[in-house]
Write a structure and sequence with these properties.
Helix content is 43%, strand content 13%. By secondary structure, it is α/β, with parallel strands linked by helices. The mean pLDDT is 96. The structure holds L-rhamnitol and zinc ion.
Length: 422
């Protein structure tokens, strides 16, 4: 889309918003500050770079599809991510999983990883002006095949994963220190069972004990912050999940750790948006895994749907933009992987714009006066305001392609780069 066209529709939109008393510049200033953490695992179907047959099933994470050209090495993945970043406006973060270390020729097991293995990523992040987040990988490993990791009744298995997660926290702090910005270490474990257990208690008691040992070491929050991610059910954990929402909410609130809410990890009719203003009364920060649940899957590519808009509304209306950390979490192997990242990131970023452009005072006034007709009518009218024209202008301002013009770049990259991979 050319600049002249963008400016034309933007000028008209600006007038329309001005008639409602909305300050577009202020909205765009806030939009510019929003940063979203991109999941490195969308680039290669959660495969990672471990050199071993050890990396096998176990852990309920399963990408489906076989679109050609997934990244096979750290270099390829970084190249793909750079392409994605070039098509996304705003400050970027990259979310790494422990299995994405650069381990050299030797097999390095999860209880042996150290900051050295992530130096390549840190150097790259510094060069690209990207901040990093980190995740322990407690799945896709023979020691996760029983369905239990930190909450396993087998002491050896438990100790192995405790050591892994401790190291992941250490690595996260190292990353944060090196890059001069906090690194969020998120912990999700697959623990649970396909059928109804008779003993839920012991697994939860063991998980609590394991977490206490893991979190015994304190780190400086400006270097690293911990978060805990619950789930409702997963592949192979349909009947019981040890780390349920109540479990982690209890743990997080009583231990000063952040909670991570994944949009795909709740009952389909449950509103994650509604939880934001509730949790933030008791916790300073939360992490969101922006995902899209479809039937039994919790990891489809994020789109601009009502759920995502609802999240953006709640964050902005609660003045919580600096308290809620945003991360995308999906892996879809059935379409161009770089394009999927761009779709998700642009959708989330875009979802904030209509809320930032709301005449909030007016709406608040109606509500306080009990004028529910006014509130509902204005909210309905706001839905069709030309925020797309403002978004296009914002993209140009941020030096990334406006409107659908970025699609061509993905198609070119697909033909010239990713499809040529063996
Ligand atoms: C799994 C969790 C978890 C993972 C990533 C890969 O259900 O959502 O966050 O998707 O860690
Ligand atoms: Zn998640």
């Amino acid at each position: 889309m050319n600049e002249k066209k963008v400016m034309g529709t933007y000028t008209a939109a600006r007038e329309r918003y001005a008639s409602l008393g909305v300050d577009i510049d202020k909205a765009l200033e806030a939009l510019e500050k929003i940063s979203i953490s991109l999941p490195c695992w969308q680039g290669d179907d959660v495969s990672g770079f471990e050199k071993s047959a050890a990396h096998s099933g176990g852990g309920g994470i399963q990408a489906t599809g076989n679109y050609p050209g997934k990244a096979r090495t750290a270099e390829e993945l970084r190249m793909d991510l750079k392409k994605a970043f070039s098509l996304i406006p705003g400050r970027m973060r990259l979310n790494l999983h422990a299995i994405y270390g650069e381990f050299g020729e030797r097999f390095v097991d999860r209880d042996e990883i150290n900051p050295e293995h992530y130096k390549g990523w840190i150097d790259w992040a510094r060069q690209e002006k990207v901040k990093l987040d980190f995740n322990a990988t407690c799945f896709a490993h023979p020691k996760a095949e029983s369905g239990y990791t930190l909450s396993s009744k087998d002491k050896e298995v438990r100790e192995f994963w405790i050591e892994h997660v401790k190291r992941c926290r250490e690595i996260s702090a190292f990353i944060g220190r090196e890059l001069g910005s906090f690194c969020i270490h998120n912990l999700w474990i697959p623990d649970g069972s396909k059928d109804f257990p008779v003993d839920r208690w012991t697994h939860r008691a063991l998980l609590k004990e394991a977490l206490d040992r893991i979190f015994a070491k304190e780190y400086i929050p400006s270097e690293m912050k911990d978060s805990l991610e619950s789930k409702l059910f997963g592949l192979g954990s349909e009947a019981f999940v040890v780390g349920s929402h109540e479990f982690y909410m209890g743990y997080a609130l009583s231990n000063g750790v952040m909670l991570c809410l994944d949009l795909g990890h709740f009952h389909p009719t449950e509103s994650v948006a509604d939880k934001i203003s509730a949790l933030l009364q008791f916790s300073d920060e939360i992490l969101l895994h922006l995902s899209r649940g479809v039937r039994w899957d919790s990891d489809h590519v994020v789109i601009l749907n009502d759920e995502v808009r609802g999240i953006a509304e709640e964050i902005v209306r609660s003045n919580a933009l600096d308290k809620v950390h945003l991360a995308l979490d999906f892996f879809d192997a059935s379409l161009n992987r770089v394009g999927a990242l761009v779709i998700g990131a642009r959708a989330v970023h875009k979802s904030f714009l209509p809320v930032l452009l709301e005449p909030r005072e007016k709406l608040q006034e109606f509500e306080n006066a009990g004028n529910y007709f006014g509130r509902l009518a204005l909210l309905e009218e706001l839905k069709t305001l030309p925020f797309g024209a403002v978004w296009d202008y914002f993209c140009l301002k941020m030096d990334v392609p406006a409107a659908e013009s970025w699609m061509e770049e993905i198609q070119r990259y697909d033909a010239e780069v990713t499809r040529k991979r063996g």
